[in-house]
Amino acid sequence: MTLGRTRGVALRGVSGTVVEVECFIGQGLPAFEIGGLPDTALRQAAQRVRAAAAGMGESLNQRPVMVNLSPAAIPKQGTAYDVSIAVAALAANGVLRAEAAREVVHVAELGLDGRLRHVAGVLPAVLAARRAGHRHVVVAPDDVAEARLVEGLRVSTATTLEELVGAYRGLRGGDRLPEAADQALAPVVPGPGRDLADVSGQTEARLALELAAAGGHHLMLTGPPGSGKTMLAERLVTILPRLTADEALESLAVRSLVGEVPDGGLDVVPPFVAPHHSASVPALVGGGSPHVLPGALSRAHRGVLFLDEAAEFTQSALQSLRQPLESGRVVIARARQQVVFPARVQLVLAANPCPCGQAWGKGLGCRCRPTERRAYAARLSGPLVDRVDLQVDVPPVTLASLGEGAGESSAAVAARVREARSAQAARWREHGWRLNSDVPGQVLRRAPWRLPAEATAAVDRALDIGDLTVRGYDRVLRVAWTCADLRGRERPDRSDVGRALLHRTRGRAAA
Ligand SMILES: [Zn+2]
C-alpha cells in the first residue's frame, strides 16, 4: 500500500494556504472520495481525474480511491486541485515515485482529455506557495508567464497529465522537473496615447489633478458632457508614482482572480478602473457565490477608481464604498469564512452640474427646474462625497483655450508629484501617515501644525459665516498643505489656503 502525496493551494480572496493532498488506494468496491471541505466543483474533480488517467491508460476505476485535503477545516473550492489530486492518485497507484512530487505545488485544472488548463488566481496561489517556503510549482502552459511574476520559484509545466507523469517518472534521485521554457517578459509600459499634454486648456482642472496625485486626495470633477472629465481622470494614473514591484504584485494578485493579468509582465502603472453607473453593490465592492470575487474597488487597488456620472449610481452602491475607502480593505462575510480583499484606492468622481448638464458658468443653457437641480445635488452629498477633499469645475473646452496649446507632459508633473510626496512622507513618518490626505483634521487644527491666523483668515471667515462645515474646513487645510508641498515650502501660507479654498467652494457652488 502506498500513500501518494503532493501539494495544492486553497485560496480565500487573495490569501492562500498550501494544502497537503494525500491519496490512498484501498481494497474493495470502486469509489472516489474527496475529503476536506470540497465544494461541488472540487468534488467533480473525481470525474476529470479518472477520465484523464484513463486517457493515458491508467485505470482509477477498479478500487476505492480516497483523497484527503488538509488542513481539513479550510473550505476548498474550484478546479485548481485537479492536477494535484491526479498526481497523488497516480503516485498511490505506483505509476510514479511518491517522493518525486511530494513537495511540488500543483495549480491547474484537468480537461477530460488530460490537458492542463488555466485557472483563475494563479498569481495569489503562487505567492502563497512562496510565502509558505515552497520553491517549485506546476501550472498550465497558459499560466506560466503569470507564475513567473513571482521570483525565487521554479515554474514547471506540461501540456497533458501524461506528459507531466512521464516527466516525473524520468526523474532520478533528487532530480526535479525541468523549468518551463522561457517566455518573453517585458515590463508593461503605459500606452503612448495617454499623457497630460493631450489635455488642452483646463488649467484649473489640471492643477486639481496634480494636487490630487500629490496629496492622495479624492477628487470630484463637475462639468457638462464633453468637457473632458473622463480624459482628465484617465490621466491621473500617468502622474501618480509607479508601483513598486511588491505593490504591482499585490495589485495583479487581485486582478488574477478575475483573469485580468496582462500578458506582458509586471504592470507598474497604477490600475484605472471605471465601473458603469448601473454596477451592483457586489460588482463594486465584491461578492458572489459560490466564489467570492473582488469588485471594481479591489481591482483598482493601488490605483484609481473612477465613477463617471456619479449621481447615477444608486445610493446603496455609493454608500457601500465608504467603509472600504476608510479602512483600505473590503471584508465579505460568508457562512464558513471571511474573505478580505485589499482596497486602497484614490477615488475620482465625475458628475454633470445638473440633470440636463448645462448649468455651468452663468447657467443660462440649463433647462432644469430648481427642484430637479436640488434633488440632483442631494444625490451627490452625504458621507462618501464628504471624503472628497478636492472639488473642481471643468468648463467646456473653448476655442480660446485650445489656442493655449499643449500643457505640460505627464512626466514633468509626475516629477513634482514625487517631490511633494517625499516631503509629506518625511513630515508625517513618525505619525504613521504617508500623505496629507491621511492626516485627521484635528491634527492640522492643533499645535504644532496649526497655521497662523494670518494664513487662515479666508477659511476662518468661511467657517464663521457658515459657508464651510468643520469637515470642509479640514479638507481645505489638507489641500493647502499639498499646495505648499508642491511649491517646495515648509508650511502653507495665505496663498496656499486661498487656492485650496477655491477648489472647495467652486465645486459646491456648481452642485
Ligand atoms: Zn440643467
What features would you describe in this structure?
It is a single chain. The chain is of the alpha/beta class and 511 residues long. The protein folds into 2 domains: 3-169, Ribosomal Protein S5, domain 2 (2-Layer Sandwich), CATH 3.30.230.10; 196-510, Rossmann fold, CATH 3.40.50.300. 38% of the residues lie in helices and 15% in strands. The chain is built from 20 helices and 16 strands. It has helices at residues 40-43, 45-55, 82-92, 122-131, 144-148, 161-169, 203-215, 229-234, 236-239, 245-256, 281-285, 296-299, 315-327, 370-379, 399-402, 410-428, 441-445, 453-464, 470-487, 494-510; strands at residues 3-12, 15-25, 31-35, 64-70, 105-107, 109-110, 116-117, 136-139, 154-156, 219-222, 272-273, 304-307, 329-333, 338-342, 346-351, 390-393. The strands form 5 sheets. Strands 11-12-15-10-16 form a 5-stranded parallel sheet. Strands 1-2-4-3 form a 4-stranded mixed sheet. β1 and β2 form a beta hairpin. The longest helix has 19 residues, at 410-428. It is elongated and about 85 Å long. The termini are far apart. The structure holds zinc ion. Zinc ion binds next to loops. Zinc ion binds at residues 354-356, 358-359, 366-368.
